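Translate structure to sequence.
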């Protein structure tokens, strides 16, 4: 409930009775735009099980996962099964899993060897997991077959509670970085970038899908929130330890504040093999920038629970209409 409490405090700060912002009609306009965007077809044919956003502006309990994936897909699936059962038993409607939830190997060659299509056996197992638990699943990045034998896609998939595909996002920004005091990682050598910004409806609201290194490019998140109507921005990740210590929480809170959106960041954590260690620290951040969900142990395997309160978030947007002011500002400086 910490997120709801922090948003309630924010609303008191912004209330007209305390001399702050008047309520603007932009809140109603924005909600109408978002609801219109929620009628999205499943890539498996037919509609996902949430088709109308009009009944979804309340509170929804979600679970964000933290895990240490290894080079054994069976072992990783057993971990995800356990986390899904914990989420179900806790009353969550949706579970968010990190990047590389299904496999994290030692080399690009191992990742290429694991590549499968969306209709392959790996996804079939997770479709069955979603259907058997009745949970929506955010699968934060798997090795999807790419455009040629030398490249995969890093693909983030959302499944509904029947195991049908609600959204597919292929990571746009690839991690080609010489990490200070860390490894040199060149994702583009074996990964082809995506080219589409993706949103979908869910019990937690309109989701904006991203993956890991995308976090450093705020214009993508502003596009998802202000232009495509996302309520909740997803950042499943496998951050390195040096970059995580320096930037992880700061960037997540910044994306939440500047877009007035929830941010859910499921993280890989700990020692995967002799070559890879991930920072961990899965977080949920509310639209006021307050961390409203995290595991007590930043590197342990487990889940953290949080409430996504869309009605309170809508009030924040109405009282401080950043989306409207952004559009007006762009009109003023465009072409300068």
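Result:
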């Amino acid at each position: 409930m910490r997120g709801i409490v922090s948003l309630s405090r924010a609303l008191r700060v912004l209330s007209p009775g305390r001399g702050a912002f008047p309520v603007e009609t932009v809140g109603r306009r924005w909600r109408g735009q978002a609801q219109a965007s929620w009628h999205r077809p499943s890539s498996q044919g037919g509609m996902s099980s949430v088709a109308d956003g009009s009944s979804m502006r309340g509170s929804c309990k979600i679970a964000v996962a933290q895990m240490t994936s290894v080079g054994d897909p069976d072992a990783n699936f057993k971990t995800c099964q356990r986390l899904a059962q914990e989420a179900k038993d806790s009353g969550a409607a949706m579970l968010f899993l990190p990047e590389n939830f299904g496999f994290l190997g030692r080399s690009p060659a191992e990742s290429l060897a694991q590549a499968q299509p969306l209709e392959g056996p790996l996804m079939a197992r997770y479709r069955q997991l979603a259907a058997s638990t009745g949970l929506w699943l955010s699968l934060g990045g798997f090795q999807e077959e790419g455009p040629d034998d030398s490249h995969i896609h890093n693909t983030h998939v959302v499944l509904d509670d029947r195991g049908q595909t609600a959204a597919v996002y292929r990571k746009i920004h690839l991690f080609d970085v010489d990490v200070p005091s860390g490894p040199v990682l060149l994702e583009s050598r074996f990964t082809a970038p995506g080219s589409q910004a993706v949103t979908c409806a869910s019990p937690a609201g309109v989701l904006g899908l991203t993956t890991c290194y995308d976090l450093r490019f705020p214009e993508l998140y502003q596009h998802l929130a202000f232009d495509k109507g996302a309520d909740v921005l997803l950042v499943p990740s496998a951050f390195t330890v040096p970059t995580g210590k320096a930037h992880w929480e700061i960037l997540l809170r910044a994306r939440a504040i500047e877009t007035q959106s929830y941010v859910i960041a499921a993280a890989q954590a700990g020692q995967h093999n002799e070559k890879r260690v991930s920072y961990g620290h899965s977080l949920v951040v509310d639209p006021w920038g307050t961390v409203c969900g995290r595991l007590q142990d930043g590197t342990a395997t487990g889940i953290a629970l949080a409430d996504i309160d869309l009605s309170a978030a809508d009030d924040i947007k109405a009282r401080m209409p950043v989306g409207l002011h952004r559009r007006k500002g762009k009109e003023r400086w465009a072409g300068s």
